[in-house]
Amino acid sequence: MTQAIDGTYRTHTSDSLIRFVIRFYEGKKDLSELPTAYYLLGRVQKDLGDNEKSVSSFLKALDLAKEDGDYKLQYLSASQLGNIFESTGFINEAFRSYQQALHFAEQGKDSVNMAYANIYLGRVYGLLKVWDQAIVVFQRSISIAEHVSNTLALQLGLNELADTYIHIQKYQDAFSCLQKILYLKEKSTVNSKAVTYLHIADLFRLMGNYDSAYVSLNKALMADNQYTRRTVYQHFCYLFEEQGDYKKAVEYNKRYWACNDSIQNAESDIILDIETKYLREKLLAEKQQQELKQSKLIFWGSSLLFVAIIIILLVYMDKKRTTIRLFEQLHKIRFQMAENKRIIASYQEQMDSLSLRQSNYDDLQQKKALLEQEVSNLVQRNEKLNNQKLQILIRLNQKDEEIKQYEEIIKQRENTPDIFARIKRTLTLEEKEWPELIARTDALHRQFTERLRKAFPQLTDIDLRLCCLLRLGYGRKEQIDLLKVTDDNLDKRRQRLKRRLDPDKKWGKGELEQFLQSF
Q1: Helix, strand or coil, per DSSP, at residue 185
Q2: What is the pLDDT of residues 109-148, one digit of tens each?
């Protein structure tokens, strides 16, 4: 189940299941699955924010994977270590981890991961301001990505190289990188190309090549997206203002505000109808896609839950068999003790008989001494058997407790539904269920709330709850029910959220939802 959550990029909320799996494999001495289990434990602990424990788990997975010769898992573990060190400011440790990741990718002859490992190293060189070496590794990454025709890694490498060139003011080289990205987007939409043209125009402005910046902005202006066109008009205003041509700057500033007003207050009923239909179709498609995702998540979650229950039942049956064996041993010990008592009684009778006989006194005394010794030995053996019986009874009590725990786990697994299914069924959300919904939102949308907190630290927990509902596509009525507020209170919360996101911006209808969907 943990591996399935990791594969769907959801945030892990508990490490209890993966720890149970690790104990199971360690008990069976199954070393083939332990490296992956420790790697998944590290991912869970990283999602839970426990970097110290996640580093320990990744190092354990790395050591076990080395023994098993699994270069892919060694690469993943080293990359995760590098990411943790980089995000916490331990740059030198991050550098060493990324070097290890590159080594493992090379050993496994994994060209795609070699390309990404070089990109990670280049970023660290950039943080250390070792620009020459950063350029070398970025170029190496680009060469590998081109060789294996991996467009995503190629575009990422070119973007990182362009940023590095801009830092050291090698604008022409940065322009070449952006031109290559534009070529890779040749078959992309006009709107996708417009973003690259905007970056190129901004680079020309830094170079002082205002004519070329003007041309690139005109190409970006070909986009049919009103938001992109508004941004283009704003860049035109900055461009002419920097040149001292305030007349044109004012003209494009007016166009910017006209475009902004057009977005906020559409005067044409036809345009309004088209936008309404577009938004309706878009929301319908997103809703269908969300329902499909939820159905898949419920299916896989149920399947994995069933597998987990089967595993628990198998362990439960194993504990039962162990308990039965202990009862059999206890029965044998009790039988042996009864037999020993019978023998002791027989010996005692012989001793009494010998004590009454006067003839052959010396022989009888010797036999009596031997019998007394045997009685003493049997008493000691009985004491040992009694101790064993007590230990077995203690173990039986422990097994009973373990069986009760497993039975409780089975009941919890059978009675715990999915958070989205509960919302869909009850249309309400308790206070204690909000952390689970936020965690699931982060898992589905690449740490959505963590990125929001970093970008907008002024946001409150109430703001983040509203952001989650908007990102998940819940409608106004569902927001009121889940937040347990009135219609007016919801409007006030939305206004406060807009001011905290951008106090100077005039938010138009639908802009808040679009901003959160694209964040």
Answers
A1: coil
A2: 999 999 999 999 999 999 999 999 999 999 999 999 999 9
Q: Which of 180, 176, 114 is nearest to 148 (CA)?
A: 114
Tokens of 487: 């219609």
Contact, 44 vs 12, CB < 8 A?
yes
Write the DSSP assignment of 417-456 as a string of letters.
Answer: --HHHHHHHHS---GGGHHHHHHHHHHHTTSHHHHHHHH-
What are the structure tokens assigned to 131, written together?
Answer: 């620009």
Long-range (24+ apart) CB contacts under 8 A made by 148-157 are: 148/111, 148/112, 148/115, 150/111, 150/112, 150/115, 151/184, 153/112, 153/115, 153/116, 153/119, 154/115, 154/184, 155/181, 155/184, 156/116, 156/119, 157/115, 157/118, 157/119, 157/122
Determine the residue type at 396: L
Q: How far apart are CA 196 and CA 241, in angstroms?
A: 22
Q: State residue 456's pLDDT score.
A: 93
CA dihedral 61, 64, 70, 75 (to 10 degrees): 30
3-class secondary structure, 33? coil
**Residue length of the chain:** 519
How far is 393 from 386, CA to CA, in rounded Å? 11
Residue-wise pLDDT tens digits, 208-233 = 888 888 888 888 888 788 888 899 88
Write down the pLDDT at residue 368: 80
The answer, yes or no, to whether residue 320 has pLDDT greater than 90, is no
CB burial class (10 A; 0-12, 13-18, 19+) of residue 268?
Answer: exposed
Furthest-apart CA atoms within the chain: distance in Å: 143
Predicted model pTM:
0.45
| Chain centre to alpha carbon of residue 308 | 20
User: Three-state secondary structure along 64-94?
Assistant: HHHHHCCHHHHHHHHHHHHHHHHHCCCHHHH
| Of the candidates 98, 2, 97, the residue with the CA atom closest to the CA atom of residue 48 | 2
- Residues 6 or more apart whose CB falls under 8 angstroms from that of 160 comprise 119, 122, 123, 126, 138
Lowest mean pLDDT among 61-65, 490-494, 514-518: 61-65
The answer to whether 160 touches 178, Cβ cutoff 8 Å, is: no
Q: For position 121, what pLDDT does the model report?
A: 94
pLDDT, residue 459, reads 92
Residue 362 tokens read as: 């010396």
Residue 86 CB partners (closer than 8 Å, separation 6+):
94, 120, 123, 124, 127
